[in-house]
Specification:
mainly alpha; 4 helices; elongated
């Protein structure tokens, strides 16, 4: 019997049940939930980093985005508020579209 001890998507228990299997779950406290979301973010980022092709990469980015939505809510924000902060930072400092790679800065 595999032991997972990790945060899973809300419909996973139903999917397991429909497969005729039994399982054990518990509901996390708010602090545990935030901590497990952070762990999940690293897990999904690693899966993205190891994606062998664009289709898989986009799937993993979607998983990361789902985690970002959940983390925003944990911090009392909406995804729209997060997007507004992102847009503001992009306006002030730019984005990453120009592919600029900073090598060094010389102090005069």
């Amino acid at each position: 019997m595999p032991v997972y001890n990790k945060l899973v998507r809300d419909l996973i228990p139903k999917i397991i049940e429909e497969a005729g299997k039994t399982f054990t779950t518990r509901t996390l406290s708010d602090e545990e939930y935030r901590q497990e979301l952070r762990k999940k973010a690293f897990e999904e980022l690693e899966e993205y980093m190891n994606a062998p092709d664009d289709v898989t990469a986009v799937e993993e980015l979607a998983d990361l985005l789902e985690i970002i939505h959940a983390l925003a809510a944990c911090h009392g924000a909406t995804i729209e508020q997060v997007e507004a902060v992102r847009a503001s930072k992009a306006e002030k400092r730019g984005g990453f579209k120009e592919k600029i790679f900073l090598i060094e800065v010389h102090d005069e």
